[in-house]
Amino acid sequence: MATVDALTNSSGTSSTKATGYSAMTAEDFTKLIFAELARQDPSNPTDTNALLQQVSMIRGIQSDLDLSTNLKSLVSQNEMASASGLIGLSVSGVSMENARVTDIVKSVSRTNEGTVLNMLGGARIRMSNVDTINPEGVA
Questions:
Q1: Which pLDDT value is given to residue 16?
Q2: Is the pLDDT of residue 22 over 80?
Q3: pLDDT: is 83 or 138 the higher one?
Q4: Which of 6, 26, 60, 78 is most buried, by the most CB atoms less than 10 A from its CB?
Q5: Can you give the residue range of the structural domain that contains 98?
């Protein structure tokens, strides 16, 4: 395919960020196609249909990746909303220190490991490690 030079604007800076295909616009893909067509060997021209299929496939893959990212975000938001509904209730589960804990949920945090319940006694339980919820809120 074409070099990155084909994707620069008149000031010489790149029109896309270094985040890959997700940062590319339809205009960037058009520039890429024209750059490849301009550099082709006239005695052995590139099959335009094959080129368009490749571009379409790349965009399809990127769409799938974007969908996956959005679904992960939605699951994270849903987990946070569910966890916030547990504040004031008694829950049981395995703490982040691998100890069995039954306590009242004081607050909820979002961490790199996911949603975490902060208990009154100081223990922390990942939402995924909760196995019992007592709706009366009494330990």
A1: 38
A2: no
A3: 83
A4: 6
A5: 87-134
Q: Residues 101, 95: contact at Cβ < 8 Å?
A: yes
Angle between helices 48-84 and 26-38 (to 10 degrees): 150
User: Do 111 and 91 sit in the same domain of this protein?
Assistant: yes
Does the structure show a pLDDT above 80 at 84? yes
Residues with Cβ within 8 Å of 29's Cβ and at least 6 positions away in sequence, in order, are 55, 59
Give this prediction's pTM. 0.54
Residues 30 and 74 placed together within one structural domain of the fold = yes
Residues 54 and 9 in one domain: yes
Q: Say yes or no: 92 and 71 in one domain.
A: no
At 136, the amino acid letter reads E
- Please give the average per-residue pLDDT across 97-120, as a whole number: 92
Domain count along the chain: 2
Q: Looking up tokens 């270094």, which residue turns up? A: 18
Distance (Å, whole) CA 134 – CA 34: 64
Mention every residue, 6+ apart, whose C-beta is less than 8 A from residue 127.
79, 82, 83, 114, 115, 116, 117
